[in-house]
Amino acid sequence: MKALVIGAGGVGSAIANIASRRTFITEMVVADRELARAEAAVNRLGDNRFTAAAVNASSIEDLCALIRLTGPDVVINAVDPRFVMQIFEACEIEGVNYVDMAMSLSKAHPVDPLTKVGLMLGDEQFAHDEAFISKGIFALVGIGVEPGLSDIFARYASDNLFSRIDSAIVYDGSNLVVEGYDFAPTFSIWTTIEECLNPPLMWERGRGWYTMEPFSELESFDFPDGIGSVECVNVEHEEVALVPRKIDAGKVAFKYGLGSHFIDILKTIHTLGLDRTEPVAVQGVSVSPRQVLAALLPDPATLGSRMSGKTCAGIQVKGLDKSGNPKAVYLYNVVDNAFSMGEYGDQAVVWQTAINPLIALELIDRGDWKPSGVNGPEWFPAEPFLALLEAYGTSWHIREESTAGIKA
């Protein structure tokens, strides 16, 4: 399989690094707006299957030209969600398969954004389902760790553990510390702001999708493997848009373990208007406040050597087991930064994200998954995916949870 990766930041570079250890990848082109960054991602591998290129991800014309030049079997979108639709549409135009780890952006309800849904995450992509089918190509969307592995856990729980699902709540948390920084997001600040400051997307059976206040329903969740208790809040995330499409669940939500300090900083960023994308005039120069913020913060890809701790991605599912008895579990994956840096030289958060699109593509290459049109991870059986996790150097686990309040 020949792949074209758009974006040579932390995740894109980690994808190339992991792919260099897998034989199903016959060629991979890593492209970035900064050619030097793409070359750095390739040069560290010492593998002639990998080459670098330059591309402007905001230009459909530029993307189409690179797709025609390189002739990939699949394009992997590893840039932030601002560029999802440009890359997605370029693939549709050129008739090439597409994979991403973050879906097209939402747009708030114009009148009542804190209770009603406007344009949901991924809506723009799912509108192209028939067009992709007619061209004989696929788009596998939201196949990172969250969304991605969390959705696969949900599918596994539905198929193997539960006869009735009352709730499926994603809990993401870590005890990662970045030495020398009071505030240093371990993922793109663009993605962090979109997830945390937009009204959280929620799902309930009988009500459908709706929204709530940002940072709502604060609770402490006890994460495994020594991470411990972390304060979690509702945020906007793709799982809530994806899981109800294929899995019958009473409630679906995403809770991010940000901690009170991180939450307070994000609230301050919002209060000061630094999350705004619209340009403002500063001494005759037009600048976006969010771009200024991103320029001031460290590149997450460079933080690995300063990081310590573990990151956990998982989903808590409650309901009735296959025999009709109350059951509650937390299915999860933990990555230690010491492992990912020691074995791969990539920090834990980007490494944990990057393995998942490659596992999915290996399953597609083997014929275990057969996507057509626009698909999410829970469209496909979970077992072959979970079986490959260990081959990629990680693992997954199931922790029994309290069944209090579950009625048969």
In words, what does this structure look like?
The protein is of the alpha/beta class and 408 residues long. The protein folds into two domains: 2-100, 3-Layer(aba) Sandwich (Rossmann fold), CATH 3.40.50.720; 149-345 and 393-400, Dihydrodipicolinate Reductase, domain 2 (2-Layer Sandwich), CATH 3.30.360.10. Helices cover 33% and strands 26% of the residues. It has 14 helices and 20 strands. The protein has helices spanning 10-19, 35-43, 60-70, 84-94, 123-126, 129-134, 149-160, 189-197, 238-246, 260-271, 289-296, 337-344, 348-366, 383-389; strands at 2-6, 27-32, 50-54, 74-77, 97-100, 138-140, 162-174, 177-178, 201-204, 208-211, 219-223, 228-234, 251-257, 280-282, 285-287, 307-308, 310-321, 326-336, 373-375, 397-400. Strands 7, 9, 10, 11, 12, 13, 17, 18 and 20 form a nine-stranded mixed sheet that branches. The longest helix has 19 residues, at 348-366. The chain is globular, with a radius of gyration of 20 Å. It starts with a strand and ends in an 8-residue tail after the last strand.
Brief characterization of the structure:
The protein is about 35% helix and about 25% strand. By secondary structure, it is α/β, with parallel strands linked by helices.
